[in-house]
Specification:
The chain is an alpha+beta fold. Helix content is about 25%, strand content about 20%. The protein is built from 7 helices and 13 strands.
Length: about 270
């Protein structure tokens, strides 16, 4: 009889550390803000617009004159209106410049309108485990757990998409072996943020039935492992969730996930 745990296909995996127990207690996963990311492509690009020209300035004043009530328009000509506005020209041009910048930025969108979380997709990916650490616990989650969120595979390309949120599903080509997926959620759909270790996070509900498996890395400390095992046994929502414990193959650069932790004698 095989002692390997059966891993369902098509899951998304969220690597977590010791925060896994508090999160599962609340049945939530964390989301973060794209503007905290290091890659500049996830920041709002600077908007550069030309200075307000004389033609734009005059056209604006003529339009403002046309909007005056008829009684006021009858008191002066448009040329007189433009001449009287000259003493406020600097303020008017500055307001027009701000308006131009806002109009140019609108099609690009704003990363601060969104939240995200990145998932692994391959529980056997050595690069992904190395990146996150073998002392992590991976939650295997079915992809349709959050209907209001948009979950897509990342696109690895040299060119950033032109706008948000499309940029949030892009990443550098060097990271393509990770084959990650990313959840993007409109920030207005989330509740208020909380502060964890000095950084802001938002919490997204994870229905317990959407958790399909828990994978335990080979370097999870024994005390943390005992706490996790006790929690999963005691919480009725998770008692039937299979747990896989990573163990090296011993014959190559791979591993299996066993139904129980291997003893020191069993571990190759």
């Amino acid at each position: 009889m095989s002692h390997d745990v059966t891993i369902p296909s098509g899951l998304l995996y969220l690597p977590l550390s010791e925060e896994v127990i508090p999160l599962l207690k609340r049945a939530v996963i964390p989301l973060t803000a794209p503007e905290y990311a290091a890659l500049p492509g996830y920041q709002r690009p600077p908007v550069t617009v030309a200075a307000v020209s004389g033609e734009e300035y005059e056209a604006h004043l003529r339009a403002e004159f046309a909007r005056l009530p008829p009684a006021l328009r009858d008191l002066m000509t448009v040329d007189t209106f433009i001449q009287q506005a000259e003493r406020k020209r600097r303020d008017i041009e500055q307001a027009l410049l701000v308006r131009k910048q806002q109009a140019a930025a609108a099609p690009v969108g704003n990363p601060e309108d969104w939240l995200w979380q990145t998932f692994s997709t391959d529980p056997d990916c050595a690069l992904s485990w190395s990146l996150h650490g073998f002392n992590r616990v991976w939650l295997g989650i079915q992809p349709d757990f959050c209907p209001q969120a948009d979950i897509r595979p990342l696109r690895y390309d040299e060119q950033w998409p032109a706008d948000f949120p499309s940029r949030l599903w892009a990443d550098a080509p060097a990271r393509s072996p990770l084959r990650q997926h990313r959840l993007v959620l409109a920030r207005k759909e989330a509740g208020p943020p909380i502060t964890v270790a000095g950084s802001r996070q938002w919490l997204l509900r994870l229905p317990p039935k959407a958790l399909r498996i828990v994978l335990v890395g080979s370097a999870v400390p024994a005390p943390a492992l005992k706490r996790l095992q006790a929690f999963l046994r005691q919480d009725f929502r998770y008692q039937r969730i299979p747990v896989g414990y990573m163990a090296p193959d011993g014959r190559g650069m791979s591993w299996h996930f066993h139904k129980r932790p291997l003893t020191r004698c069993e571990n190759p």
